[in-house]
Model the fold of this input.
Amino acid sequence: MFNVKLYYLVFLFSVFIYSQKGDMINHIYEGNKEANLEKYSEAEIKYRKALSISPEETKALFNLGNTHFNDKDFDEASQRFFQTQKFSNDKNEKHMAFHNMGNVFMKKKDYAKAVESYKNALRNNSKDDETRYNYALAKELLEKEKQKDQNKDKNEDKKNKEDKNKSDKNEEKNDKNDNKKDDNSKNKNEDQNNKSKKNKNDGSNKKNDQNKKRKPGQLSSDQVKSLLEAINNQEKNVQKKVNVKKVKGSPIKNIKDW
Done:
């Protein structure tokens, strides 16, 4: 009796599994029809229904990746292709998943990852001409990108050196101008000092010339001036004394008293 129940349960489970698998296959089939009509949103719904039944179903993952790729959702497409090669044990499926991953990275202009993806695709199928062509193209574009980056770095270095040289020249020019200003200021001060000295020397020389022109025993103009002032002062004092004597010597008349 126990064996009969067990057999019955195994039978029901088999039917359920077969039914689930049938539903999954139907969802994939319907998703393919929607994808062929370029109805990518509807196709995505069908593939996700299939994956809700079997999350590691590689056909549903691969086709969902193609749907994202055609809908230009490259990040999602890359994830689905990665899951496909991860869960698949079939070399052909792995080859197609890596090939399409390479196509995603080419669209994103990530040529280094594209080269690696095509290389992995060729490891699983080295005879695919399209993969070999894409691999060669990705390598060429990667080399051009590296060369472009190197040239850009060289140009930046060159520009930085030119800017530095220009800056150094400007600093040198400014230093020269500052030195020139200092020299001019110094020369100007020296000219002023020389001019002042010259004026003093001219005055001294003029005085000396005047002294040289005087005859022996002749008074200078300053001495003459001082002597005249002394004589004038002396004359004033004498006149004062005379006036005083006159006042004292005058007779005083009596005033009549009527």
DSSP finds eight helices and no strands in the chain. Residues 198 and 204 are 10 Å apart (CA to CA). The chain has a mean pLDDT of 78.
